[in-house]
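PROTEIN DESIGN WORKSHEET
SECTION A - STRUCTURE
LENGTH: 308
TOKENS:
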């Protein structure tokens, strides 16, 4: 059970107009004029009371997603929300809760449980003070957070599946947003996207749930992503570009007990690569013999059962 709570409230009469507000001003004098009679202290009290209600009246809450801070000139930061007292109250009322990182409290150790890179693919597992931190990327199916009839930049099924697998391959989670229509329904584009991901997950979810970044001892072959389940000790190779029949796993010799496609459980035969056309040392590599025709899943996944 989780709540999303907008720190921003353009409808509240005491919420001061800032640079992100629809009524944002051209200069400081206009801001002063527009904000006459508004009192952020009253809005802060309202905000804290609402969060207290959410944390008190609905049993155990697992996640609180607060959104968002934009400090600086004509912005809103931790002082505007009184973020320190806010997070202390949340932790007191829900000791086991997970809170995201948008309270503008970079120097306060207890301010966040996970980072939230938005609408980007991170280059690697995000870190804070040199240590890996839990994270999730928040993304949209299209270019809009809400329903937008004329929006055309929708991600296709493969892009969405790769986005999911890539997030897991770097130790993260994927949060996908869907905007309902005025009828309260998901439109056909959203439903088709969800169905495509569901069809893929039906047989490939083992490569996602419970998985994380692969150990560094396993080199990632070109045009693939690796995910790893540390409990079952199984490695998953996501084939982004389906290869020709001989697929090489560099440096995997002696590490694999068995290989199979995840979608149908069919065995993939293993062997030693031929060095007939290269002078490279392939003695530590493993060759997988794949079918000529690409299997039906948008992104086929090979499950490697590793040696103990």
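SECTION B - SEQUENCE
RESIDUE ASSIGNMENT:
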């Amino acid at each position: 059970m989780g709540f999303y709570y907008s720190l921003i409230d353009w409808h509240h009469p005491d919420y001061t107009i800032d640079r992100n507000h629809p009524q944002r001003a051209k200069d400081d004098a206009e801001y002063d004029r527009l904000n006459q009679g508004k009192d952020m202290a009253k809005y802060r009290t309202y905000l804290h009371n609402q969060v207290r209600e959410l944390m008190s009246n609905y049993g155990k809450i697992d996640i609180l997603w607060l959104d968002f801070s934009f400090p600086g000139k004509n912005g809103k930061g931790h002082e505007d929300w009184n973020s320190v007292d806010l997070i202390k109250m949340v932790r007191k009322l829900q000791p086991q809760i997970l809170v995201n990182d948008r309270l503008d409290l970079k120097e306060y150790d207890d301010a966040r449980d996970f980072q939230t890179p938005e609408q980007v693919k991170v280059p690697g597992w995000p870190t804070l003070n040199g240590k890996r931190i839990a994270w999730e990327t928040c993304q949209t199916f299209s270019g809009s957070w809400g329903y937008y009839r004329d929006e055309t930049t929708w991600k296709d099924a493969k892009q969405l599946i790769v986005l999911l697998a890539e997030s897991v391959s770097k130790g993260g989670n994927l949060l996908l947003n869907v905007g309902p229509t005025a009828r309260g329904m998901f439109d056909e584009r959203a439903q088709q996207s969800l169905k495509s991901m569901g069809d893929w997950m039906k047989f490939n979810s083992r490569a996602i749930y419970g998985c994380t970044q692969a150990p560094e001892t396993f080199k990632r072959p070109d045009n693939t992503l690796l995910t790893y389940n540390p409990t079952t000790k199984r490695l998953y190779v996501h084939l982004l570009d389906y290869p020709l029949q001989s697929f090489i796993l560099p440096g995997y010799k002696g590490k694999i007990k068995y290989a199979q496609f995840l979608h149908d459980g069919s065995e993939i035969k293993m062997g030693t690569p031929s060095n007939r056309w290269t002078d490279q040392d392939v003695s530590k590599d493993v060759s997988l013999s794949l079918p000529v025709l690409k299997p039906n899943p948008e992104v086929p996944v090979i499950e490697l059962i590793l040696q103990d």
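SECTION C - NOTES
The CA atoms of residues 18 and 74 lie 5 Å apart.
The mean pLDDT is 96.
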